[in-house]
Write a structure and sequence with these properties.
Layout (H helix, E strand, L loop, with lengths): L7 H31 L6 H12 L4 H8 L3 H9 L9 H5 L14 H30 L8 E5 L13 H6 L16 E5 L2 H5 L1 H18 L5 H7 L3 H7 L9 H7 L4 H9 L4 H12 L3 H20 L1
Antiparallel strand pairs: 1-2
Helix pairs in contact: 13-15
Length: about 300
């Protein structure tokens, strides 16, 4: 082996530097390891308050870690309050009254632009709907027009012009509704004849003349015709009941009651009502309900006669 011919002072200096370098490396490695271990424990005040709130609500550490993107060691440190937070202030942080300030500069500008575009689209839709509503309210029937528009006119559809006098005269008296070609499904158009509208005053004039002629040609009706046009007393009585029994008119007339006097007399003969009851039940199929209604009507008529 070769012998080190360097001076002893040089050898001692190199040994001292090597020892210092090894000490520095070990301290750096310890510091780096502490930072790596404590990186998961760096939480904000709001996060620690939320962790404690979730823990009181019986959420597991695993659930809190997945929701808040925290390590189990950071969660346990917050639960044990290793940071020494004032626990009375947790409610304010959880409710958003106090806490971390949101950095607006860190927000993605694309999210803001998408929100603005959505708001602009909503405003445009509202404007279109309001314009369509005003157009629908302003649309009315024009007596001098050949087309009556029902519904909404789109902005790209031009309302047809009025027809000239000669073209109106060529139109037939009546015309059937024709289809309207439009780009939207919400437009409906019915075609009305101008000649039909213009003939309305003539028809009213004719009707007034016919009324005048009818007055001249009217003849006085005979008393027999007037009596025939009025309902019979029996039918009038049956129609005034709580449950109208007009179908029994012929049956009661067949029994022999036809006039108001006969109705008044028979309503006072309560013992003879059984004869009418048997007659209606056997020959005309009257139900018990119909007889009860008819009987109450007779009782009311008899009471009215007694008051007079």
């Amino acid at each position: 082996m070769g012998q080190d011919i360097r001076a002893p002072e040089v050898i001692d200096d190199e040994a001292t530097h090597a020892s210092a370098n090894s000490t520095t490396a070990s301290s750096v490695s310890v510091s780096l390891g502490y930072r790596l271990r404590s990186r998961g424990l760096q939480t904000t005040r709001t996060q620690r308050a939320l962790v404690r709130m979730y823990s009181r609500d019986e959420y597991t550490v695993h659930q809190i870690g997945e929701y808040m993107n925290l390590t189990p060691s950071a969660i346990w440190a917050a639960i044990r309050n290793e940071a020494g937070d004032n626990l009375d202030e947790d409610r304010g942080y959880c409710d958003g009254i106090v806490g971390d300030v949101i950095n607006v500069d860190a927000v993605d500008i694309r999210d803001l632009q998408s929100d603005r575009e959505a708001q602009a689209e909503e405003l445009e839709v509202e404007k279109v709907l309001q314009g369509d509503a005003r157009t629908s309210c302003a649309t009315h029937e024009d007596p001098d027009s050949d087309l009556e528009v029902i519904g909404l006119w789109p902005t790209s559809l031009v309302r047809p012009k009025k027809m000239g006098t000669r073209e109106r005269q060529r139109q037939p008296r009546t015309s059937r509704p024709g289809p309207l070609t439009s780009p939207g499904p919400s437009q409906f158009t019915s075609v009305a004849s101008m000649g039909a509208r213009r003939s309305l005053p003539r028809a009213s004039g004719k009707s007034s003349k016919m009324k005048q002629r009818g007055v001249e040609q009217t003849s006085i009706a005979s008393p027999a015709e007037v009596r025939a046009s009025q309902p019979s007393p029996v039918r009038a009585f049956l129609g005034e009941l709580a449950y109208p029994l007009g179908r029994l008119g012929d049956a009661i007339i067949a029994f022999g009651i036809t006039t108001n006097l006969e109705l008044d007399v028979f309503s006072g003969m309560r013992e003879e009502w059984v004869l009418l009851q048997a007659f209606l039940f056997e020959k005309h199929g009257v139900t018990p309900l119909e007889w009860i209604v008819l009987k109450s009507g007779l009782e009311a008529r008899a009471a009215k006669q007694n008051t007079h």
